[in-house]
Amino acid sequence: MLVPNLAGECELRLVKDDQRLYGLGFWGPNDDSCVVGVVPGDGRVLCLRPAPITIDDIPEVLRPYHSGLHKPAVSFFSSSVAQYVETAWRWHAAIQILRKVEEPSFTAPEADHVRHYERLYACVELVVDVARHIDRAVAADDQSVWIELIRGNSI
């Protein structure tokens, strides 16, 4: 059982005080990554961090580019374990394809680079649309962990 850090209002919208979650594992490259948990009874899948991430947690040199940064300690992933697994499976397949999209050489004309990134961004948005189609709650929340992961790890 996981004990989420209910650091503020954002977290309390997703989890009740003193509520425990079932652990599904980690999302990320190591044990310091977010923990994936399931709310008993309703089956929602949440991303748990030890504490919120704020502007103070990033190097000073990056702070001007991320003003207002706040990632809560508890974030919404999926409405159910089935939707989480379906989205994760499709995301895994999509990222394998996206990684094969070859970038033009650095000496290629600027127009080639523009076309490449337009194509890549369009493909990423197709994956985002699939995540929203699988789980309507993801469609209603642009701050969903799925949207962040897909957009942030594709390009």
Structural write-up:
The protein is of the alpha+beta class and 155 residues long. The chain has two domains: 1-78, no CATH class; 80-155, no CATH class. 41% of the residues lie in helices and 15% in strands. The chain has five helices and six strands; from the N terminus they run αββββββαααα. It has helices at residues 9-14, 81-98, 110-134, 136-139, 145-154; strands at residues 22-27, 34-38, 45-48, 53-54, 70-71, 74-78. The chain has a four-stranded antiparallel beta sheet. It starts with 8 loop residues before the first helix and ends with a helix. The relative contact order is 0.13.
List keywords for this structure.
two-stranded antiparallel ribbon; 155 residues; 4-stranded antiparallel sheet; alpha+beta; 6 strands; globular
Quick structural overview:
The radius of gyration is 17 Å and the shape is globular.
Radius of gyration: 17 Å
Q: Give the ordered list of helices and strands.
A: HEEEEEEHHHH
Q: What is the terminal-to-terminal distance?
A: 35 Å
Shape: globular
Structural class comes to alpha+beta
β-strand amount: 15-25%
Q: How many separate domains?
A: 2
Can you give the helix content as a percent range? Answer: 40-55%
Q: How many beta-strand segments?
A: 6
Number of helices: 5
**What profile does the largest beta sheet have?**
4 strands, antiparallel
Mean pLDDT: 86
Uncertain segments are: none
What strand order characterises the main sheet?
1-2-3-6
Any chance you could write out the topology, listing elements then pairs?
Blueprint lengths: L8 H6 L7 E6 L6 E5 L6 E4 L4 E2 L15 E2 L2 E5 L2 H18 L11 H25 L1 H4 L5 H10 L1
Antiparallel strand pairs: 1-2, 2-3, 3-6, 4-5
Helix pairs in contact: 2-3, 2-5, 3-5
